[in-house]
Design a protein that fits this description.
endopeptidase fold (from Nostoc punctiforme), 2 domains, six-stranded antiparallel β-sheet, two-stranded parallel ribbon, 6 helices, 8 strands, globular, cysteine-type peptidase activity
């Protein structure tokens, strides 16, 4: 509650002090202000400065948010590096590692290492987290595609984004049936582009459970 009171004070005082200072600079007067007025102005300036400093220290939109983003970035980096250790690991339906994986088994294994317990199937994983637009993708997000056997609107495959390019394309890592754990670019203008269903964000939305 204290930080919100301080924030409100700073919000009210800052425009007032800026206005007073601007008017004083733009409209100089040959008459001296009474000493009491000068003391009041200096005191108000000090209060304003203290309020601004407090605002920067306690604001939920600056330091806390920046710290959270830094934490997410560090965590995601560790997760993508860990996932890369399994490149080349063979694919096996129903396997959840570490000697073999299917797609959801691989994603679940990586996330569990960092305290996120995901559902076992890709279809169930698609019901978790927060929906993300393709243009807002970031590393750590999950991409979902239809499978070979199901319809084009039925989730059957999942992958994890590891890198996002300036042009909006990205690279994901997944357990593919033909190559095992491997990297793939998206959109690819072919198989994965045609089967893409949507993306979900787990990191920063769901809290680790371990």
């Amino acid at each position: 509650m204290k930080q919100y009171i301080v924030t409100a004070m700073a919000t009210l005082l800052l425009p007032l002090m800026c206005s007073i200072q601007t008017k004083a600079e733009q409209n100089p007067t040959p008459f001296k202000l009474p000493a009491a007025h000068i003391e009041l102005f200096n005191a108000a300036s000090g209060v304003s400065g203290d309020a601004i400093s407090a605002l920067q220290a306690f604001s939920p939109f600056t330091s806390e948010e920046s710290a959270e983003e830094e934490f997410d970035s560090d965590l995601i980096g560790k997760m993508t590096d860990y996932a890369a250790k399994f490149l080349g690991t063979r694919y096996r339906r129903g396997a959840s590692g570490p000697s073999a994986f299917d797609c959801s088994g691989f994603v679940g294994y990586v996330f569990k290492k960092f305290g996120f317990n995901l559902s076992r199937s890709s279809r169930s994983q698609y019901s978790e987290g927060e929906k993300v637009n393709t243009e807002d993708l970031r590393p750590g997000d999950l991409l979902f595609f239809s499978g070979r056997a199901g319809g084009k609107k039925t989730v059957g495959h999942v992958a994890m984004v590891v890198d996002v390019k300036e042009d909006g394309s990205c690279t994901f890592i997944h357990a593919s049936t033909s190559q095992g754990v491997t990297y793939q670019r998206f959109p690819d203008g072919g198989y994965y582009s045609k089967r893409y269903i949507g993306a979900k964000r787990i990191i920063g939305v769901n809290s680790p459970t371990a």
